[in-house]
Write a sequence for this structure.
């Protein structure tokens, strides 16, 4: 699989040979392809705060349609998209119900609480990203007379979670519970595209039933920046005000929207290759003594090192031009810049490190 992502390769010299670096920490590390850079260079632009950037407007409309929603808003990051979505649903003193390990609770710096005065109500999560819906139901506080409590307004789900696709039956049951109890529904779909490809669904099918959905462009799709919040026109209009207040108003940003549009047009179906590479990687690593493999889960493989030293492994891999985040359980993420040949090289490097 060839790489044409930039004119100058990123790598390290071993003698007279340039060795391509392989970064497995996340699918956020990808670089724009040559075609994507050209689309960015050719983009027609305007001032998005005034609403007259034609590339942004067309991209938002296309994303909304792809996800089966009426409106969309382009933002800089997934954290900003989730925060604007939560704040569009909730007022000060309200709460949102969310998984204890979910990104919108654990990895977004407490933004909803700090900036929105919205209380998170965390619920224990299973490894597959599901929450016990009986526990969710017991945590809901919606009666107007309950002035002791923050009032529950929103249920947040995440798909995928650690690469795992939420079961469709669970999503349907969670949505039914939320509707029955008068809650809004928000989906952190940072890797919704992987869920669609891995679950043999359309993006709109994965997004169906949610009032707002956040999708990321700079993970599996490989854009340099950006996320999109989609939903009803009313909620997206509220979210636009919050985006402005959060400093998210952008100007001639069509150059970035063009990268996102290129991703929608060319990089969704290719996620199947990342999933296939993850499967190949899991199979190869499973043959190495001392490793316990969890996965593949869409484009991710989790490697329990057992008695091996995570730092020593990371140093050995780095010497072979392979970057991982050192941990007892190493998360390996396949993405646009990891080829099938790279997978074999990774397996060989793991084997030599642990032999």
């Amino acid at each position: 699989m060839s790489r044409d992502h930039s004119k100058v390769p990123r790598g390290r010299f071993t003698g007279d040979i340039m060795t391509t670096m392989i970064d497995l920490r996340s699918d956020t590390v990808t670089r724009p392809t040559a075609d994507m850079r050209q689309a960015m260079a050719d983009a027609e632009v305007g001032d998005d705060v005034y609403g007259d950037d034609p590339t942004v407007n067309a991209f938002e409309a296309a994303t909304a349609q792809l996800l089966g929603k009426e409106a969309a808003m382009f933002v800089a990051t997934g954290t900003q998209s989730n925060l604007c979505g939560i704040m569009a649903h909730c007022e000060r003193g309200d709460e949102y119900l969310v998984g204890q390990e979910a990104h919108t609770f654990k990895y977004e710096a407490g933004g909803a609480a700090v900036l929105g005065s919205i209380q998170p109500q965390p619920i224990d999560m299973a490894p597959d990203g599901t929450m016990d819906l009986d526990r969710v139901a017991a945590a809901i506080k919606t009666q107007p007379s309950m002035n002791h409590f923050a009032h529950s307004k929103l249920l947040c789900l995440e798909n995928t979670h650690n690469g795992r696709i939420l079961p469709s039956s669970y999503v349907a049951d969670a949505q039914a519970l939320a509707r029955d109890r008068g809650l809004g529904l928000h989906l952190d779909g940072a890797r919704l595209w992987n869920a669609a490809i891995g679950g043999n669904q359309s993006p709109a099918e994965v997004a169906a039933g949610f009032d707002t959905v956040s999708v990321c462009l700079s993970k599996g799709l490989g854009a340099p920046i950006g996320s999109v919040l989609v939903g009803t026109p009313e909620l997206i209009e509220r979210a636009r005000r919050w985006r402005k207040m959060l400093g998210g108003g952008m100007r001639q940003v069509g150059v970035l929207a063009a990268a996102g549009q290129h991703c929608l047009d060319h990089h969704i179906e290719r996620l199947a290759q990342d999933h296939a590479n993850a499967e190949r990687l899991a199979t190869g690593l499973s043959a190495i003594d001392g490793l316990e493999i969890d996965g593949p889960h869409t484009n991710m493989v989790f490697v329990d090192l057992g008695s091996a030293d995570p730092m020593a492994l990371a140093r050995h891999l780095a010497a072979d031009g392979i970057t991982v985040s050192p941990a007892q359980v190493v998360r390996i993420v396949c993405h646009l810049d990891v080829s099938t040949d790279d997978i074999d090289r990774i397996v060989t490097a793991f084997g030599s490190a642990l032999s």
Q: What stands out?
A: Confidence is low (pLDDT under 50) at residues 1-9, 13-18.
